[in-house]
């Protein structure tokens, strides 16, 4: 019984120290990341190669540029 106590106690203490150390390092890195790489929420910027004259996807009809069939066309063929 004493051998189990001698082996398990250092393992438990090592695991606790390792867990606390990883927690503290992760917390420090997270706080540093927030300071240096702050997230900005808002309207996304337009990609540099976007075409301003291109129509919205919502304004396109399925006959114009979409190669996928409408659901009503697939149901009608069954």
UniProtKB/TrEMBL annotation:
<feature type="compositionally biased region" description="Basic and acidic residues">
    <location>
        <begin position="53"/>
        <end position="66"/>
    </location>
</feature>
<keyword id="KW-0472">Membrane</keyword>
<protein>
    <submittedName>
        <fullName>Uncharacterized protein</fullName>
    </submittedName>
</protein>
<feature type="transmembrane region" description="Helical">
    <location>
        <begin position="6"/>
        <end position="26"/>
    </location>
</feature>
<keyword id="KW-1133">Transmembrane helix</keyword>
<feature type="region of interest" description="Disordered">
    <location>
        <begin position="53"/>
        <end position="78"/>
    </location>
</feature>
<keyword id="KW-0812">Transmembrane</keyword>
């Amino acid at each position: 019984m004493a051998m189990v106590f001698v082996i398990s106690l250092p393992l438990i203490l090592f695991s606790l120290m390792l867990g606390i150390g990883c927690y503290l390092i992760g917390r420090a890195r997270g706080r540093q990341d927030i300071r240096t790489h702050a997230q900005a929420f808002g309207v996304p910027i337009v990609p540099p190669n976007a075409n301003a004259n291109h129509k919205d996807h919502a304004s396109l009809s399925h006959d114009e540029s979409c190669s996928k069939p409408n659901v009503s066309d697939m149901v009608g063929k069954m």
